[in-house]
Amino acid sequence: MYRKFLLLLSTSLLLCISTFSAKAQTRVITGTVTDMANGTALSGVTVADNLKSSNTSTNTQGKYTITIPVNAKSITFSYIGFQTRTMPVTEANTINVTLSSTSNDLQEVVVVSVGYGTLDKREVSSAITHVSSKDLLTVAANNPLMSLQGKVAGLNITNTASADPNSSPNIQLRGVSSRSAGLGPLYVVNGVPGGNIDNINQNDIESIDVLKGGAASAIYGTRGSNGVIIITTKKGGAQSQMFYDGYTSFDYLTNRLENLTADEFIANRVANKQGQDYKGRTDWLDAVTNSPAFAQKHTVQFSGGSAKTNYFASGDYRDADGIDLRAHKREYGARININHTTDNNMFVASLTAAPRYMNTSNADQGNFNNALTLNPTYPIFNDAGKYNYINTGFFSNNPVENANLIKSEAEIKELDINGSLKMNILSNLSTTVTISEISRSSKNMYFSPSTLSSIVQANKITQTNFAWQEQQENDQKNIEWMGNYAAQLGKNHFKLLGGYSYSLYNYKRMYAQNYDFPFDTYLWNNLGSGLYNGGAAGQGQSAVASTQNGSTLISFFARVNYDFDNKYILTASLRREGSSKFGANNKWGNFPAVSAAWRLSEENFIKTSLPWINELKLRTDYGITGNQDFGNYLSLLLYGGAGYFPYNGQYYQVYGPSSNVNPDLSWEKSLNFNLGLDFSILNSRISGSLDYYIRTNKDLLGSYTVPVPPNTQSTTFTNVGTMKNYGIELALSGEVVKGTDFSYNMNLTFAYNRNKFISFSNDIYKGGTFQDVAGLPAPGSPGNIQRIQEGHSIGEFYTLRSAGVNDAGALLVYKKDGSIVQANLASNDDKQFVGNGLPKFITSLGNTFIYKRFDLGIFLRGTFGYKIFNTSAFYIGTPSSQSDANVLKSAYDSSSKYSLLKSNATTSIASDYFLENGSFVKIDNVSLGYKQPLNIKYLKSVRIYAAGRNLHTFTKYTGGDPESVQVNGLTPGVNTSLNYYPSTLQLIFGLQVTF
């Protein structure tokens, strides 16, 4: 395949060179754009030539580089809040410009990444949100997308353990879209699909574009169903510069769950014969908490170059502790971007490399819950100074011992590398080849020592200490070849794109474990010294494991952008894509899209009668996208171990079919419709967008029951089911105050989303009309508390409906016939739909104040219209909770409804008694900075800043921070495990220096 492709590529390039042997008639112009009032650099200024053949924008230092045809007569510089300025093109290759503030009618010009290229925002006809680096939040987080939280309407970013330095956010766009395939968006980093989001330093980000409309994301075919997030990193300019950013952060517990102190435990639990007094006094939650958790990060960036060659290089170091005793992360990263243009401007070459090394110690996400439930009269250490052996309560272990002695670590190496060669055949015709590789190697390690109190107490002589190692390798190789052509015929403007894409994915895993090492000091470094192989009858089946699998994705794509007189815009695209994951009968699929826009503000009847309107654009789009984010080989007949066969005194492994073949397995289809309005009024002081969307997901992937025989297995992975999401999104920004020394800008986002599950069946596979989900764990048998049912929404709670509490402290519930009985006398048939865990509204409000050299940002977020099942109250929030376990203070607080549940007869019976309003408003981010320009030879400016995150939460929810309960995915509004990782208030102090 590669040999044929390279031969085709070589032949085509030779033909292009022989046909267009003359030099490409272009030249490169560089320069700097500054504010006329104070001389500061202007970032994000749009730079375009009069022929509209090329455009770019200035970087954070106000620098730009643009390639224009030699017959271009002028270059225009546009920036919101400043007067547009046009400069003539002379023989000079450097054009420096100053812009002055104005209150005249302005057009906002923003360059937006649309997938395989960029467009002026005014040319965009689909739903795309553009966020520049200056608009990102000040955060100290493991993942750069946490800086985008709340900034994009419809994009929900959550992290239920944000104080864990190894945690990653859950990201969902416009609601849940699948049952069994991936729910997250596709990441495109510097034009490479499938980019590694963890290998990006926030300081290196130039802009983020979120493709929400189906017409925009359809250009990515089977990977565009959940939206696309395009991240563009910074590039070098014509002038050399060095930049440093460093911060320290401190995380403090906030919104923590409060359990009984030792004295309260004795007064309430011991006195009522629900616990014992072991004479100790221990605050277990405090004992397993590392507060404040300290982190530091340092970034150094270098950029510069000439008119023909520029570079950008950065290096970063981060060292972060978690709020628990064990979590830690140390990482080193770098990024280099080099761009070179030949003297004749015929070829442009680019190279990007981004390595990263991480050493992590993983948090024990259950340790805080262990601490919450332990008897506070138990001491941490026994009389001999050893860790106390604990065999009471929910989890029967010593969480301080676990955190300090059990080790769980990882070494992670990542490398993203890509190179491209662009050939400018004509001033309006070019072709580009890009080759890239994204690799990740993870070595995971675990060790449990022989000195654990549970091992010592049991006098074990086998299966004492235990260790394992796991090596995982992920690799993605891509090659893409594109061609671009632009033409202008009078008032008709055309842009044509065509391309080919080939992606090869590979995954490898090797695992080994053992017990009974001679020394605990070996940890996981000498597995062969162990004596117990972990298998039955000496076969060792669980002692070692290895696997390898992969997939291939091949695509052809094309897009045409057309506009007439900058008023009427039409875009159409088609991607034809084939995947090895699909069945033999459905290897290939087509993903078309079309969008249109009408710029009413360019019509004379608007310009003359409504001059206060600067931009008014009505747009609509429709596109079909797919989802192939599921496991490999699920369409094939696979063989696996099927037991052992004895022969001549030996046991031999027997293999047999382990899955059903499905030649019709295909991608999930997403039918996307969007109707939107973009506007800018009052000299662009107020601007925004409004979108209404409907997304129907068909052929949902899942495992369905089939008869045996003729099938060898009882379930088949196939395409069945339909789901729909619809909603409204609003984004609004305004310059509320615009003065010489003081300004105030406001940004508002609002999203409304509703979901409906339409069907579980099709003509071939007939299933039930519902599926029970969100099963709660022991103790007891609470069962499932949510149901996905046809005609209902994801997240519907399906439990008994409470009718209060009787005098004996037992829960009362309604039966289906309306009668009231004690909860233990009801059955599953009496369950009802009692609420929904999927938020209806998500909103944010950003406020930016600038006074001279001071800047202040205040960012608020809110989520409304949903229920949360209070898992902690259900298990440890009532007087009837498990004996000798600690409980929350609410169990004996007369003002809490949970204090009424005193009867053991109805313990562990789930009902809507434990549903609470999850709505909240957060003072999410407050940042204050001061920048001092300096007229020193080696120093240009210094900025100091401070920020606070999660400063306060306004909510009626009593189970701690409502954001600790996930609202993305198939079971929103409920924690289905007892794990608890508390939220934190974070303080950040930083310094930025420009040299």
UniProtKB/TrEMBL annotation:
Coiled-coil intervals, chain numbering: none
Pfam families assigned: CarbopepD_reg_2, Plug, TonB_dep_Rec_b-barrel
Keyword Transmembrane assigned: yes
InterPro entries hit by this protein: Beta-barrel_TonB, Beta-barrel_TonB_sf, CarboxyPept-like_regulatory, Plug_dom, Plug_dom_sf, TonB-dep_OMP_SusC/RagA, TonB-dep_OMP_SusC/RagA_CS, TonB-dep_rcpt-like
Keyword tags: Cell outer membrane, Membrane, Signal, TonB box, Transmembrane, Transmembrane beta strand, Transport
First and last residue of the signal peptide: 1-24
Family statement: Belongs to the TonB-dependent receptor family.
Name of this protein: SusC/RagA family TonB-linked outer membrane protein
Source organism (scientific name): Pedobacter chinensis
